[in-house]
UniProtKB/TrEMBL annotation:
The modification 4-aspartylphosphate is found at D51. The keyword Phosphoprotein applies. It comes from the Bacteria. GO terms for biological process: phosphorelay signal transduction system. This is Response regulator. SMART domains: REC. The keyword Transcription applies. It comes from Rhodoplanes elegans. It holds the Pfam family Response_reg. SUPFAM superfamilies: CheY-like. Keywords: Phosphoprotein, Transcription, Transcription regulation. Residues 2-119 form the Response regulatory domain. InterPro entries: Bact_response_regulator, CheY-like_superfamily, Sig_transdc_resp-reg_receiver.
Amino acid sequence: MAVHVVEDDPGVSDSLAILLEHLGFEVVCHADAEDFFRAGPPAAKDIVFVDLILPGISGAELIRWLNGLKDPPRIVAMSGQSQNTIDLQLRGLEGVGEMSIIRKPLSHGAITQQLATLRS
């Protein structure tokens, strides 16, 4: 199982990768959705952390694409935006696939809690 991090902020991406690697995960980082697409689709057992605000193709569009896969991975959407903005971006995705939302700034506790939920 790999964890993919799609995040354009290098500081957030690096910090998240270090934490995930420390927790024993294989981590693959992508600066944008286009780079993620070039790498090929993730496996169903993978976890994909997606920043909702990305340059180019948005995180919400990436999540829609992931949910359209035959066997979609587990998804953690990340955002520092207001709840109303998050709701607008993710409109129509309720009940589709396994997705959770984590708020920025990210914390060790919130990340490990999300991973525990996804592993169960």
